[in-house]
Design goal:
This is Inositol-3-phosphate synthase. The chain is an alpha/beta fold. Helix content is 33%, strand content 19%.
Length: 369
Amino acid sequence: MAKIKVAIIGVGNCASSLVQGITYYADEERQARGLIHRDIGQYGPTDVEFVLAIDTDGRKVGKDLAEAIFAMPNCTTVFEKDIPSTGVTVMMGNTLDGMAAHMFDVAGGRGFERADQPDATAEQIVEAIKASGAEVLINFLPVGSEEATRFYMECALQAGVGVVNCMPVFIASDPKWEARFREANLPIVGDDVKAQLGATIVHRALSSLFRARGVPLERTYQLNTGGNTDFMNMLDRARLASKKTSKTESVQSVLAERMANENIHVGPSDYVPWLDDNKLCFLRLEGKLFGDVPMNIEVRLSVEDSPNSAGVVIDAIRCCKLALDRGVGGALTGPSAYFCKHPAEQFSDDVAAQMTRDFISGPVEVIPA
């Protein structure tokens, strides 16, 4: 089977989990555990090949990808330590707003250390993508990297590759950007990846349960804490606007009636260094039963954040490749709704799952006008 050639932008914790996973699932017995889909079309979980990696941290740039994924400030669980050399040397990217000012000079090497190299130009990035033979580009940039994401999306369009936009910078869900990918006949899955079993999907499931059982949801919150660079980055509240929109709209979309802004709070809450890549989520939902009798649910969820992401991204990559094989461009409606928090069009998770299965089994997907 031909490999799916993948370029990674941002060699952080999520990239680490994804790269580890490709080696981990080389053992076929393991493929019965932890995958949403074992096979997607003709592609299995190990048919992903990394051919390009781009970062701006000096502890990663210039190293083989197999080594760079374990460099600080990465702190995710190591579930597969014996990663063979990939032959891919991490390339210096273009910094732009990808590194927040408060992320430097952090104790214990937990912050960023910009590489002592000039930023790569758009021309250099495009040439590197083309030379690598990459077919799908994965955006793993930090939250708030608005300029950097748009820079790399331009590079993707010029290089002629599909995209999985894992970050809450709105590309697939922006009609102007989506139209450009559709006109170029390049698929995109986005925006802002949902975890395999994370805060958003649990919050959506419980909100849907309230609706299904006739219980009006009156107030709800989702508070998240963690100790990885993502949570440290989000201490700068100015970088949070699109993230909060993405997470909030994902929950609002499954409610029977849209909640007033003052009654719903969804978003990252604080950075706790010793949690490392573990994410703690605290959910509360308040509603009224028969006779307007009040009730509430409180949930505490503990997950390793980056493997939770990788479990979805590995499927998004394969769906993107299927679209390339079939000549389908633009935002992939079903996969985007199933795999991402902020797709162009929201559906319930059951409907999005069926749409994704239909996409996988069908010859083409009809892209809405």
